[in-house]
């Protein structure tokens, strides 16, 4: 279930907020602590309970538990008691106040505990203490300082004895808000829109419904995610979730912002992720934590995909074939083939590594140019090709020029890695950047009569191959492309 909290400051705005929220939510939460003045708050409770069309939770959170109520404790409890007396569907009472409330009528009591600093290690003890007070619903909300804090919340949910609401707050707690239904959590909270969150890390109703299909998630749902840092702007959740829905798969894909890759790779095995995408900065650092690495990925020395088959985690690199596929299909349009082509690759990072190995296998004659010459030398040694410094780029003499640096990527769209003077008519110019779709390099290359290839095909191809590895199903490539184009 989805609950939308109303955090308006007047009765009028609260009622209109409730009407709007009731269109999307299963339950609405009236955050009475946002309304100044005791009398206004009382009127608001009465008005809401008279006009509600969906079940309502009445909450009056004190400042000590992250709320806005700053009056006396007596007044705070008086409002909560009033909500119980009026028969509100649910009333949220903090664990340390439960003995002050007389329980009567049909109101269900949520006994809650909030920790805005951390996810403590004594979650089971807190749960047991709350249960001693015979709650109708237990609510334990903590703060995630590390992604693995969510995993402890999932374990708590799995062992719950009464209906339970539990998740982590903060950016790192997002996944527990999205996945709570898989582990038996009663509901999640969502804001009506950005800026109307009642707690840190709350997603909007739109994100929960449109990107993550929250209501479709159940205990059978298979989990996938993207391991990286940062990941909040990744387009992969939108692409893969849309593809899972398109193919009728009960799967969900979430962003996983990972700082300590070793700790995550150990803990993630507890909750049965079926696969991961891997992005910057973990494409190489994740290798020691895998059970097996595909041969091509081993030679490249980096992966971007993990498949979990019966508990065995295997790493793959789909960037490599994605780049080669993109180049080959573009060359087909000009009736050319990759074999024996002279190729200059600018950059010597992860993308360059994957592309260089893929093209070497196709028999291409490669030169790597990079700002940090030592990195170019190392890559050229591994791939067995030539290398040069950035200053030598003007000497390049190639059929194909490939940019794998981030120069020209959003927001620095006015930059370009090479002077347009080195671009020659008939040259093929491929930019791995896909945001923007047409970089300055590609624009200038077009102007010089070059054949240009943007990074979108590589991006889509790598995601499509991930999808195939995880599901053994043909990926919906057109849909994937449309999702990315829409987002860009
Ligand atoms: P990376 O491993 O961090 O490598 C970055 C590369 O860019 C290095 O060679 C670095 O040179 C160079 N660089 C960065 N800023 C520079 C500057 N100001 N001047 C000169 N060189 C600079 O990153 P990556 O994973 O290879 O990604 C690189 C680019 O490829 C990004 O734009 C990414 O979006 C794109 N990419 C696209 C796809 C796709 O599917 N289309 C896939 C992967 C990556 P130094 O070694 O000197 O630092």
TrEMBL record:
Record domain Shikimate dehydrogenase substrate binding N-terminal: where: 226-306
Protein name in the entry: Multifunctional fusion protein
Entry superkingdom: Bacteria
Gene Ontology MF terms: 3-dehydroquinate dehydratase activity; NADP binding; shikimate 3-dehydrogenase (NADP+) activity
Pathway membership: Metabolic intermediate biosynthesis; chorismate biosynthesis; chorismate from D-erythrose 4-phosphate and phosphoenolpyruvate: step 3/7; Metabolic intermediate biosynthesis; chorismate biosynthesis; chorismate from D-erythrose 4-phosphate and phosphoenolpyruvate: step 4/7
Catalysis performed (reactions): shikimate + NADP(+) = 3-dehydroshikimate + NADPH + H(+); 3-dehydroquinate = 3-dehydroshikimate + H2O
Residues binding 3-dehydroquinate: 29-31, 61, 177, 198, 202
Gene3D superfamilies tied to this protein: Aldolase class I, Leucine Dehydrogenase, chain A, domain 1, NAD(P)-binding Rossmann-like Domain
Binding site for NADP(+): 347-351, 370-375, 432, 455
Gene Ontology annotations of biological process type: amino acid biosynthetic process; aromatic amino acid family biosynthetic process; chorismate biosynthetic process; shikimate metabolic process
Entry-linked Pfam families: DHquinase_I (PF01487), SDH_C (PF18317), Shikimate_DH (PF01488), Shikimate_dh_N (PF08501)
Binding positions for shikimate per the UniProt entry: 234-236, 279, 304, 319, 434, 462
UniProt keyword list: Amino-acid biosynthesis, Aromatic amino acid biosynthesis, Lyase, NADP, Oxidoreductase, Schiff base
Assembly and interaction partners: Homodimer.
Keyword NADP on entry: yes
